[in-house]
Specification:
This protein is mainly α. It has helices spanning about 10-15, 25-40, 50-60, 85-105, 105-115, 125-150, 180-215, 220-245, 265-275, 285-290, 295-305, 310-330, 340-360, 370-385, 390-400, 405-420, 425-430, 450-455, 470-475, 490-495, 500-505, 515-530, 535-540, 555-560, 580-585, 595-605, 625, 670-680, 705-719, and strands spanning about 250, 285, 465, 480-490, 590-595, 650, 685-690, 695-700. The protein folds into 3 domains: about 10-150, no CATH class; about 180-220 and about 290-430, Orthogonal Bundle (Clc chloride channel); about 445-535 and about 580-715, Roll (CBS-domain), CATH 3.10.580. One of its GO terms (molecular function) is voltage-gated chloride channel activity.
Amino acid sequence: PVAAGSGIPEIKCYLNGVKIPGVMRLRTVVCKATGVLFSVAGGLFIGKEGPMIHSGAVVGAGLPQFQSISLRKIQFNFPYFCSDRDKRDFVSAGAAAGVAAAFGAPIGGTLFSLEEGSSFWNQALTWKVLFCSMAATFTLNFFRSGIQFGSWGSFQLPGLLNFGEFKCSESDKKCHLWTAVDLGFFILMGIVGGLLGATFNCLNKRLAKYRMRNVHPKPKLVRVLESLLVSLTTTIMVFIASVVLGECRQISSSGHSGNDTLSLQDISEDVNSSIKTFFCPNETYNDMATLFFNPQESAILQLFHQDSTFSPVTLSLFFLLYFLLSCWTYGISVPSGLFVPSLLCGAAFGRLVANLLKSYIGLDHIYSGTFALIGAAAFLGGVVRMTISLTVILIESTNEITYGLPIMITLMVAKWTGDFFNKGIYDIHVNLRGVPLLEWETGVEMDKLQASDIMEPNLTYVYPHTRIQSLVSILRTTVHHAFPVVTENRGNEREFMKGNQLISNNIKFKKSSILTRAGEQRKRSQSMKSYPSSELRNMCDEHIATEEPPEKEDLLQQMLERRYTPYPNLYPDQSPSEEWTMEERFRPLTFHGLILRSQLVTLLDRGVCYSESQSSASQPRLSHAEMSEDYPHYPDIHDLDLTLLNPRMIVDVTPYMNPSPFTVSPNTHVSQVFNLFRTMGLRHLPVVNAVGEVVGIITRHNLTHEFLQARLRQHYRTI
């Protein structure tokens, strides 16, 4: 099911730092490629560019490890690129290669990966992604040129979508591709394109919500029936529109001058092959059928390069039908892209404007192909809200650098107009999925908030030396991917009780977490009773007598000197939170580092632990290669055979934790927190006060636009 749609929202989420299950699977790309082949060939109003970007990203994700979940028997001992950062870089390159192959635009593909995808970019990655995009473009060019023309190595077809050559006729001296006067019309077209794009996104959002409520919860057959209904309706509407609404127009050889070059072949052959008679008399053709019954690429070329072949009524009806049907189609359970339908819809809008200017205002000097191109850019920009990359993609596709200024102005105006009403289509679908996507930057008003206002104060933590039973309980009862490693600072506790102002100001952040910490202890105790080991059940029922350390002895110093001594509060049954005193409930937690869930599961899976009677030095040590051997698919805690683990054993996590992660002060402004989190590619950001105590943690969820807006409203209410 994850292969449905264009795949660009999913890739955007992945490159932003969020993993969506199944997006990078081999079976996904096989389903995607096969599905888009039949959905495009079947005549649905969708494109293949989005699925190509997704397919390229999946290839980029799978190549670094030379392995796949679907092909588990094929194993390569390839120890390189075993980190999320490396994999993300390969996915960025794969997505850029997909854009480059689709449009023949390697620079545009690189900018697309930078603008729409990657949150974490560096200078070295730019060259790598550009090289990958260039290789993809010329590989496709090599094979297409050889297969279509038989001239291997000629490199004549740079991309799957070719806009042809825009060139005025040599006999028409008044013709110009565009003039300064035309820029005013281009700005107006950008405004209209932004409005149309916002309308398209609004309608598609309502359709997506309806599908989420009424289609997706039902059996999978309902999705198939919906796709069949869309296909049936599209076929009927196209046929009826061509028969009833199409006009039979005379084939005029004078309208096909040498300036209207469609491709490398002779113009007359291309015109004759793409014009559809469709129940019209001889020497005439049906203009509506010529648009509907041609491949979308051919229809775009007709609108870009053919003159005096489509009436304003035909263009208006075609635009309306294509707008509604493509909006309905995008979102059904088939692999589908949005670039080509938006370009075709916008090209019809642009040709309509050109025809009206020629017929009713008398501007005979304008070049209709330019207005069709600007209309396509305006509508596509209003839908997807891309500026830099889309400008370069269209310039590279037209191979005409003089179009740079009008395309850029049109896209900017379309984006500004559309952003006034709603977000781009990809951002809308990301929000509907509930993915915590990080924007490029926060608003100025967010600096009224500090890290203490947005952090999560209710922490789930581990101790440097923790019993297996406690680790298993934590992993089974939470879904967090990282845990602070802490010790209880009793020295600061005494200072707090004496009324030390510094300590009391920092301790206040933990007051809201008292009940959560008590509930966490109860949850751990209940979880222990369901542990499959009978030995552990007995362990939970027993009372473990422990000696309280001397009052004057610092607990942290004791840990450093006698690391084999387990902490008194490691056992869930010995921490009755309901009976804690005031000092115990506000006890400071000294921060020592951060350890990942995958690391804890790996330690349990490999049996890395030591017994109470031994020193922690006797614990087996794992190398970095051994710890990352299962990347990227670490075992799940529920898949481990827990009966083989002795719950009395102790795990020393200090050799494997990150002792110096990025941290922030509770008083840090949100903009600084956001920039640090985004630019460094973090997933967890502990909040540590002035005396080294962890008072909260910030994750991606705490930095989303919706969460920050809610906290800002709460901040204003408290003021």
